[in-house]
Amino acid sequence: MPGTLYLIPNTLGPLDAAPGCLNGLLPTQVQALTSSLDYFVAENAKTARAFLKLIAIDHPLAKPLQEIEIAELNVNTPAAALTQLLAPLLAGRDAGLVSEAGVPAVADPGADLVRLAHQHGIAVRPLVGPSSLLLAVMASGLNGQSFAFNGYLPTDAALRTKRIRELETRSRGERQTQLFIETPYRNGAMLEALVAGCQPGTLVCVATDLSLPSESVRTMTAAKWKAALAADKGPDFHKKPTVFLLLAQ
């Protein structure tokens, strides 16, 4: 009988290693289950080990950390290699799929592995933990009844502006909140593009470092963001994970 693939949420950023440091983010049951596994699939083995070290503070691991198997799955992993990653599960071994940050398989290469697991009859169990996208929707004050995540927008300035205007038009027509993310060092350019590309009354939310001590969530019209940037009162979000949201009025 195949093992179970557990989808294990990770923190949304670095935490100080101390007893109970994960308790506000991951239920005790999730931490305990994670500590019981000895096979993981992760984007990066080094950061996965750092996460397991945090788990081990309150929940001893099933094996010494150096003996726990961590297979990597990232954007460079060929599709043909996915079946090999599932081989231990097909042999009856449970496994954990861990994201770099937040929940696996959402804005994350693990989605392909989850789909293949279903095709092979492997049970998939999502576990409770932080999702930056849902936290951003919750805190934004924008429409939480209808929203869409659009991943990364184009890096080319002209194409990015075109895409922003398309999303704004869709938002206005469907009353739908539009979410997207950016590589943290380009956050400033993204906000400037939003201010320039959106209508003055469009609501724009910038949600940074969610669930961390440095968390910041601000929602204003594009016109007010323009004034804030002109006054050098923009958000402190350079090189910090940020979710952008807009809702056209």
UniProtKB/TrEMBL annotation:
It is an enzyme of class 2 (transferase). Pfam families: TP_methylase (PF00590). The keyword tRNA processing does not apply. GO terms for biological process: methylation; rRNA processing. The keyword Methyltransferase applies. Residues 36-223 form the Tetrapyrrole methylase domain. GO terms for molecular function: methyltransferase activity. Its EC number is 2.1.1.198. InterPro entries: 4pyrrol_Mease (IPR000878), 4pyrrol_Methylase_sf (IPR035996), 4pyrrole_Mease_sub1 (IPR014777), 4pyrrole_Mease_sub2 (IPR014776), rRNA_ssu_MeTfrase_I (IPR008189). Keywords: Cytoplasm, Methyltransferase, rRNA processing, S-adenosyl-L-methionine, Transferase. This is 16S rRNA (Cytidine1402-2'-O)-methyltransferase. It comes from Massilia aurea.
